[in-house]
Amino acid sequence: MSILIKNVLHNNQTTDVFIEDNKFSRIAPNMKVEADKIVDGSNKAILPAFYNTHNHAAMSILRGFGDDKPLFEWLNEDIWPIEDQLTEEDIAIASRLAILEMIKSGTVFFADMYFFGEQTIQAVADMGIRAAISRVEMDLFDEQKFEQKKIDTANFIEFSNPCPQRIRKCLSCHAVYTVSDELFKFAKETAEKQGWFMQIHVSETKQEVDDCFAKWGMSPVAKLDSLGLLTPKTILAHAVHLSDEDIEIIKKRGCYISTNPISNLKLNSGMFMFEKMYKIMPENITLGTDGASSNNNLNMLDSIKFCSLAAKAESNSALGGKADDIYKVATINGAKAFGLNAGEIKEGCLADCLLVDLDNVFLTPNYNIISNMVYSADSSCICDVICDGRLIMENGKVAGEKEIINNAKKLAEKIKNMKK
Amino acid sequence: MSILIKNVLHNNQTTDVFIEDNKFSRIAPNMKVEADKIVDGSNKAILPAFYNTHNHAAMSILRGFGDDKPLFEWLNEDIWPIEDQLTEEDIAIASRLAILEMIKSGTVFFADMYFFGEQTIQAVADMGIRAAISRVEMDLFDEQKFEQKKIDTANFIEFSNPCPQRIRKCLSCHAVYTVSDELFKFAKETAEKQGWFMQIHVSETKQEVDDCFAKWGMSPVAKLDSLGLLTPKTILAHAVHLSDEDIEIIKKRGCYISTNPISNLKLNSGMFMFEKMYKIMPENITLGTDGASSNNNLNMLDSIKFCSLAAKAESNSALGGKADDIYKVATINGAKAFGLNAGEIKEGCLADCLLVDLDNVFLTPNYNIISNMVYSADSSCICDVICDGRLIMENGKVAGEKEIINNAKKLAEKIKNMKK
């Protein structure tokens, strides 16, 4: 399969972009090559697509389900009673809804932390996006749950991956307040043995940090480090409340951070120290949406704008969270965190990209396309999404979207009637 | 002219909505009436449209023109040298670009503070939106400029309004640090004589408040009050840095506030005390985008999400900035601030509304349409916009949009070549 994109704006120059198999093979003007598919790029710009490094994708089916409540009331009364009743089939439907939303808003990869990961993997396989999928490890310090998690994880390892190139299985541990030392150790050994990436929620709230000190006499970051969980293949989600010692550890271990600015604001968890951390580890800061029930969308365009504005507020400077830095964080950094040679429009890189409409009002005028994408664009600007060398959205349309929406609506009706 | 919207979701019920002339005349299911135009509302919801109470619309042509710089460097080096060279014809083109963007994102009214207001009025007249348009009063304490402002204002009064119902001329004073007492007094007398609304930037930055105390021994709010400028027809933009005494004055005078959360974050001006102020004066808090060069769009959907999230951060509570409150602020409150019987889908009210697509992924599932609009929606959700009883966007299309974009692109090329 090959795609030739003709006359598209790339770094302020009009050029052609040739994609062979799943890579950008050549970028040059007026190319004369045979291609299976020709895309007219005139009045469009080609840009890196988004890599969403923290998500609970299937929670999209709970979008707007009882929000604006205190966190634990909301979890106890609304979210957890429903999640307990969701079936594998429900997760299959909900994952497709989430992936549709991500594609529509320019995302080509997501790191997922939820349950029934096999269903999410199948949805990813069918819809052409990339992902790193985990089944979350969480035992609430209960030995029976720990044993069950070992069985679930063994099954997940055995589950045959329908498209190994695009999908990586990975491991995720929920957090220091929900995972026993034994489960952490089991997860670490499994991740090492399988060569998997690891995702962990860390220092999301001040409460989490205070409780960890009270229980273990150290911060969540130090606790994870004491268990050997921090490596260059570890992605730490949130990381809002970090001490200088924590930052030293994270830097030394070469971990990646996934900041989730909207979720952190919506749940009033605090603001990530973007400017400080970006100066210390400019390649290792990445961006996530978190699940739709604490955002309430998976739209990385919302998240890049909020990431910039929160960075300005947190650093008390209008110069914080510069558009160019944020766009890098949302694209190439996220790709690199999961070992992908992607996130750039460059010969040899994986062919993931967006084509955006330069006639769209939010991108007009176009003095600076990155500034426009960060501060002005919304999903209406995105015409086409290419992932792994295949058009997964063309002229705003994603294959099967009508059916995905209808199935999600039916599932939502079922959820409305569930006991809480 | 009459419009019948069939089978549309309104307050969780499917109904018909009949619009005669510029008002909602009847809301009831299965209506049998003759209408000039029938709109199929199935799979759509009808919602109040947005009233943007603070804007510098024509600045859209400077979107992304040298941002991420310190405020005064940006103004001095980028914005002001260009603004000085803009002609009336340029403002006509730029105003149309801004109005197109507003309609596309569901706005039916904007309060404007810029120059060459006559051109903006003509653009509003042509494009079917509502507005309160002013030519900004600002003399920088220079007597010659003051005299010129008097002439400009007299001309603006004389300028014949091409559609009096939808457009209100109004007066705006820039701020206490740019307007002399004489000009303030002239503005007050003019506004009183003409029966016009008044817009003033107030207490946007801490610096403004400190400087005002140093110069006048009182806060900007107290200063404006001492000049008699605070009335129920005064809309105070920003109002970020208010003392308890300021709040007392504003409440006593019955002023409206236009909060501009994105601009305040982008320029690092601070965060409006939304929760506190909304409790004190729940009818008088309204929402604005500010100009596109400090946002960088005029999309009220971005602003409602940021308004809520900033309210949560500022009040240190996940319960701050509730979706229902924010939607009210962005709709009915904005309409009332400018004396419009609008902002609700209600018989007898002005027929302004949105039809949103319930098959759009960002609105799926639909447990709570207002939560979805505030936290999840983007402009791709909006199918149709009705203002003053006329369809100004139908199936996502606005009349003349191609020409507006092309003219804006040409003007942007001219601006790129202007001397700075």
Question: Can you characterise this structure?
Answer:
The structure is a homodimer of 420-residue chains. By secondary structure, the first copy, chain A, is an alpha/beta fold. The first copy, chain A, folds into two domains: 2-48 and 352-401, Roll (Urease, subunit C, domain 1), CATH 2.30.40; 50-337, TIM Barrel (Alpha-Beta Barrel). The first copy, chain A, is 39% helix and 22% strand. Chain A is built from 15 helices and 17 strands. Chain A has helices spanning 71-83, 88-104, 117-127, 143-158, 181-194, 206-216, 220-226, 244-253, 261-266, 274-280, 300-315, 323-330, 332-337, 369-375, 401-416; strands at 2-10, 13-20, 23-28, 37-40, 44-47, 50-55, 107-114, 130-137, 167-169, 171-173, 198-202, 234-238, 256-259, 285-287, 353-357, 382-387, 390-393. In chain A, strands 6, 7, 8, 9, 10, 11, 12, 13 and 14 form a nine-stranded parallel sheet that branches. In chain A, strands 3-2-1-4 form a four-stranded mixed sheet, with no helix packed on it. In chain A, strand 1 (2-10) and strand 2 (13-20) form a beta hairpin. Chain A is globular, with a radius of gyration of 21 Å. At the A-B interface, helix 2, helix 9, helix 11, helix 14 and helix 15 of A face helix 2, helix 9, helix 11, helix 13 and helix 14 of B.
Write the layout of secondary structure elements.
2 copies of one chain form a homodimer.
Chain A (H helix, E strand, L loop, with lengths): L1 E9 L2 E8 L2 E6 L8 E4 L3 E4 L2 E6 L15 H13 L4 H17 L2 E8 L2 H11 L2 E8 L5 H16 L8 E3 L1 E3 L7 H14 L3 E5 L3 H11 L3 H7 L7 E5 L5 H10 L2 E4 L1 H6 L7 H7 L4 E3 L12 H16 L7 H8 L1 H6 L15 E5 L11 H7 L6 E6 L2 E4 L7 H16 L4
Parallel strand pairs in A: 1-4, 6-7, 7-8, 8-9, 8-10, 10-11, 11-12, 12-13, 13-14
Antiparallel strand pairs in A: 1-2, 2-3, 5-15, 15-16, 16-17
Helix pairs in contact in A: 2-3, 2-15, 4-5, 11-12, 12-14
